[in-house]
Amino acid sequence: MKRNALDLNALRLLQTVIEAGSFTAAAQQNRRSVSAVSREVAALERALGQRLFYRHTRAVSLTEAGRLYLDAVGPLLEQIDTATETLFREDAEPAGLLSINAPVAFGQRQLPRLIGSFQSRYPKVRAELRLSDRFQDPVRRAHDVTFRVGQPADSNLIARPLSPMRYIVAGAPSYLAQHARPREPGDLLEHACLRYQGHYGRQHWYWRNDRDSAYTPLAVDGPLYSDDAVSLREAALGGAGLVLFPSWLIDSELAAGTLVPLLEQWQWEVTPQERLIYLLYAERELAPPKTRAFVAHVLEQVGDPPLWDRWRVQAD
């Protein structure tokens, strides 16, 4: 054990030996052998270059160096215990920096208002929002909460379903004024379809009759592809064509009537299976109050039906 790599457990063991009065009593409290306790204390002494104990037949006592050292580290260990207890206490007030990761379009569209309302409730929390369409390991990147689409890979994180991905075919009134409104999915083959093109290639469009049926691919095409969903939304608003977007990306436009939903009797996706939006975060026992509070706030605010699927009420 080097001086720059002292183990907190060894320091706690030092305290336990003094409080218990002997290596034997300390070993019993820690459910370890006396020889293991003795070896760890000896390793600590070697790392410090000082003898910490006088060994007696039935008891031990601190040397002067040991007493000075324990007086110095004892309060530090107490502060660590207090800080840890405060951090994970159920009733602790959420505070500190909250790191949030999400896909770009979803984060831009939905998270500012969720973060804003959360900080109004918990003003001691500062937020860092990092947006990326590539999955980033929440543990390696030190994200407290991650929003992701689709079932996450197995991990030690909790994956909490937030909302289904509800896709909607939509177009601007100006486009529909110049083109016959599609009556069934096959009619889209005759329309200008604006398609997203991301890391996984060009977007495909799928439809099905109901939840019990399989999705059917539809080979749509159109005049514009883009890796920027906002640009495609603006093109659709300008009458350039139809889009197939999740409701969270066009909820305000649907509520305002600047985009019109089409073919709503069918279900739509951009993959052959239905997907959900998930919240990823550490196990509840390991998650600090800021994380637990933010997850609870998001679930409450999004609700069921999701916040972004309430545009019909707004439109009415």
Based on the model shown, name its key terms:
316 residues
Characterise this structure.
This protein has ten helices and 16 strands. Helices cover 39% and strands 22% of the residues. β1 (53-55) and β2 form a beta hairpin. It has helices at 8-20, 23-30, 34-48, 64-88, 104-121, 173-178, 229-237, 247-256, 289-302, 311-315, and strands at 53-55, 60-62, 96-102, 125-131, 145-149, 158-164, 167-171, 193-198, 201-202, 205-208, 216-218, 225-226, 242-246, 260-262, 267-269, 276-281. The chain has 316 residues and is of the alpha/beta class. The strands form four sheets. Strands 7, 8, 9, 12, 13 and 14 form a six-stranded mixed beta sheet that branches. Strands 4-3-5-16-6 form a five-stranded mixed beta sheet, with helices on one face. A three-stranded antiparallel beta sheet has the order 11-10-15, with no helix packed on it. α1 (8-20) packs across α2 and α2 packs across α3 (34-48). The mean pLDDT is 87.
General form: elongated
The number of distinct β-strands equals 16
The helix content is 25-40%
Distance between the termini: 71 Å
Write the element-wise H/E pattern from the N-terminal end onward. HHHEEHEHEEEEHEEEEEHEHEEEHH
Q: On the 0-100 scale, what is the average pLDDT?
A: 87
Number of helices: 10
Low-pLDDT sequence parts = none
